Each structure stands twice: as structure tokens, then as C-alpha cells.
Amino acid sequence: ETPILQVKQLHTHFFSKSGVVKAVDGVNFDIKPGETLGIVGESGSGKSITAMSIMRLIPSPPGKIVNGEVLFKGEDLLKKSEKQMRKIRGKEISMIFQDPMTSLNPVLTVEKQMIETILTHENMNKSQARERAVELMDLVGIPESRNRLKNYPHEFSGGMRQRVMIAMALACNPEVLIADEPTTALDVTIQAQILELLNKLQKELGMAIVMITHDLGVVAEVCDRVMVMYAGKPVEFTEANSLFANPKHPYTWGLMNSIPKITSKKEKLEAIEGAPPDLRALPQGCSFAPRCKHAMEQCLTIDPSITKVEESHHVRCLLYEETEKVIST
Ligand code: SF4
Ligand code: MG
Description:
Layout: E1 5-16, E2 19-31, E3 36-40, H1 47-54, E4 63-72, E5 75-76, H2 82-88, E6 93-96, H3 110-121, H4 126-139, H5 145-148, H6 158-169, E7 176-180, H7 188-205, E8 208-213, H8 216-222, E9 225-230, E10 233-239, H9 240-245, H10 250-257, E11 306-310, E12 313-316, E13 325-327
Parallel strand pairs: 3-8, 3-9, 6-7, 7-8
Antiparallel strand pairs: 1-2, 1-4, 4-5, 9-10, 10-12, 11-12, 11-13
Helix pairs in contact: 3-4, 4-6
The structure holds iron/sulfur cluster and magnesium ion (MG).
């Protein structure tokens, strides 16, 4: 099956007085219809900037997509005008966020906002749009949908507000949904319900989902494949199953150890020591070396390339460099 979205050699940099922040520095992935790809990493690893680059929402200046291609159905979004992008955003590619208030307007009823979104992209009259809004509220499991449309965003609980945002994102049947930490702010039970909802919607609607998260627990729930990012670069890319069965990158090992156990609720176990590097002054050699328990002498001078360690399992680490190389940096 042909991918719906292909990201090739994406580089997004921010130009500040104190230097160039290479927020995204060589990201490659593709995603097929109906597939869920996880992008995992700590904050500052480049996950959200990758998503914003795809949507062409990088504030410029100071940001700039300096290289790469974002092929949506074979067409490069980086070559589209802002006017063309406005037709694609929300209709063909939608995005949801951690905080629904970033995409919901607090002073308008949900009905007003939904109708407006639907009318922007679809050829309908107002009462058809209202019926579509009711359908969407039902689809995402909001009880008494018709009455609840009259409410303002703050009148919904956190979980219900997240459902409203999802309904809004799905208003025009997008083919790709980019979800940036959509459950991070929710408690564990509600988080599970929202992930279950996304799984169900994907089965019904067949869209591709790019799931951005710092939480491997979320990956385990919903993702088919996963790309782990560190300091703007992918460091491991494979099927979700093999990531859990056989993680290869020392950074992924660290993330695995910091998954909170169900029994100990929020408590973070063994978070990875140290902080992500300053992206304006990356260390020579492997970016992860200063925090890596397995670092060798050559890690301080050689920047590892992406190596194929198994069929569809790629890793950027000198522990595996003797294996066949597929992409050089
Ligand atoms: Fe650790 Fe070296 Fe691998 Fe980097 S290349 S992750 S420092 S072992
Ligand atoms: Mg983020």
C-alpha cells in the first residue's frame, strides 16, 4: 500500500542570536492509511516541531524548514502556498493537542465552532452542518450530544473537552490525524478511554494517526510502528512490537525504565539521568553520549549513522555500526 504521508530528510532550524537551534535535523518516516505511527521522546526532542513542520505552522522567523520534503498523497506540502495549506489543514490533515483550549475558542459555544469548521471546508447549509455536529458528538461518545452542543468549552470535564476537540478535528474526515500528547494532561482512567476512542475511530474511519508522546505506555496502547527521537534526530525506528520485545538504543532502554508501573501510579521510575543537550551546541560525536551508560571512547568523536539491525528495525548507535548501513548522515 502506498503511504499517505512521507517525510523525507526534514530539517527545521530556529535562528536565534545565540545560535542555530537544530530542532529537527534529518527526520524520515512514512505512514500508510489506517496506520498509527508513534513519535516518542522527551520534551525538546523535536517531536512537536516535526508535527508543526508537516502542518507548515512553524513561526518564521525565527523558524525555518531548511531542507526536506513532506509528501502528502505524493505532493510536497513544503511547496504549497499558505492559501493551499489552509485548505489542507483541518480538512485533509488535522491536529489535536494536549490542551483542548489551544484549539477551542472559550467564548463560543461548541455548536458555533463546529458549524464554523464544517462550513469552512464542506459544501453544506447551516442546518446540515448542525446535524453533522450532532453526529460527530455521538461519534466521540458525548452523551446527550444535541443538548451539549449549546455548551461552552469550560462546561465540559477535561476528558469530555478532549472528545469535543477530537470531534472538531474529525469534522471533515481527515486522512491524517496528528495527535500531540493528546492524553498527557488527563488522569489514567480518562487517558485509557481517549486512547480507546482513537483506536475505535481509526478502525471506523481508516485515517492514519501520528501519535506524538513522551510515554511508551501510550505507544503500547495504540501504535503500529514507532520512531524514537533524541535531540532532533530519530535514534530508533521499528514496529512497536519489536521495540518492546527488543529495544536497541540506550536512550530507548532509558525510556523503558521510566515507564510508570500501574501499581505505582504517577511515580517515575529511574528517569534517564541528565538533561537533553543544548541544540545550539551539540556535543561532537553521539548527541546522547553525555547521558549514555554504554558510551565508548569513539562515541565522543563519531556521530553514529542510521543502521539497519534487523528487517524494519533501524538504530543510530555505534554499538551496532558493524551492521549494514542504509542511510549515512
Ligand atoms: Fe551510547 Fe555510543 Fe550508542 Fe551514543 S553511540 S547511544 S553514546 S553507545
Ligand atoms: Mg511537545
